[in-house]
Amino acid sequence: MSQTLEGLRLWVTRPSQQAVGLITLLNEAGAEAVAMPLLEIAPAADPASLVAALANLAQFDLAIFVSPSALDAVFAQLPQWPKDLPIAVVGPGSERRAKELGVEQIICPSSQFDSEGLLLEPAMQNLQNKKIVIFRGNGGRELLPKALQEQGAQITLISAYQRQPPHFDLARLNAELAAGCDGIVISSSEAAQHLFQLAGDGALQALQSRIYFVPHPRIAESLIALGAKQIELTDAGDNGILRGLHQHFTHPR
């Protein structure tokens, strides 16, 4: 797909730590990829609970990581992951990061990359009385822990990091809009909320008229509720998003 996105100016709104791979792919395809992180990742507000969980990993039968940020936060505190402790993740980005970190036993959905998809995996059945730790950010969806508890699993929830609003302001947003924007990649509903809250009245119409590329229907629904008119659903992961962009810009409907 080299140079297939030549001349396009595309915003990548992932947290800075997660955006590098996609930005590299977009630049290699000829686009100008603009880092516009709509979420910032910060250390956990209560690090003591994370430290305690990591000190007692041997008690768990399974560890679930909801994002690459959760993996990075946990592995920053560990010299090595226990080889006999499997992990579960919800998408290809987390799976790739887990492999980079040396994890050998990884459960990941084969197609539906979300909590619902993970719960359908054969390895996520028959978990009664199993001890499971879930590493996530502050808050988050409750579907996964609730469903596992209903199976009879014993769940420990650990906030491994915090998601915070972006550091850039309305002046930066207006400047980037004025410089041109051919598409915006949004990877979470929370990020979409931050973007439109930041806009206020002045930039709202400009944002609503832009085209958004999202890897999950739930993000598309959030954008529709915010007034976005053009939304393209892509596959998950960096390569999936790149394929979606390529399809849109080289094979317009």
Automatic annotation (TrEMBL):
Which keywords belong to this entry? Lyase, Porphyrin biosynthesis
For this UniProt entry, the molecular function terms from Gene Ontology, in alphabetical order, are:
uroporphyrinogen-III synthase activity
Question: Which pathway does UniProt place it in?
Answer: Porphyrin-containing compound metabolism; protoporphyrin-IX biosynthesis; coproporphyrinogen-III from 5-aminolevulinate: step 3/4
Sorted alphabetically, the Gene Ontology BP terms of this entry are:
protoporphyrinogen IX biosynthetic process; uroporphyrinogen III biosynthetic process
Enzyme Commission number(s) from the entry = 4.2.1.75
Span of domain Tetrapyrrole biosynthesis uroporphyrinogen III synthase: 23-230
Q: Which reaction does this chain catalyze?
A: hydroxymethylbilane = uroporphyrinogen III + H2O
**Secretion signal span:** none
Return the InterPro entries for the record: 4pyrrol_syn_uPrphyn_synt_sf, 4pyrrol_synth_uPrphyn_synth, UROS/Hem4
Family matches, as PANTHER family: UROPORPHYRINOGEN-III SYNTHASE, CHLOROPLASTIC
Into which family does the record put it? Answer: Belongs to the uroporphyrinogen-III synthase family.
| Described purpose of this protein according to its UniProt entry | Catalyzes cyclization of the linear tetrapyrrole, hydroxymethylbilane, to the macrocyclic uroporphyrinogen III.
Q: What is the protein name stated in its UniProt record?
A: Uroporphyrinogen-III synthase
Q: Which organism is it from?
A: Iodobacter fluviatilis
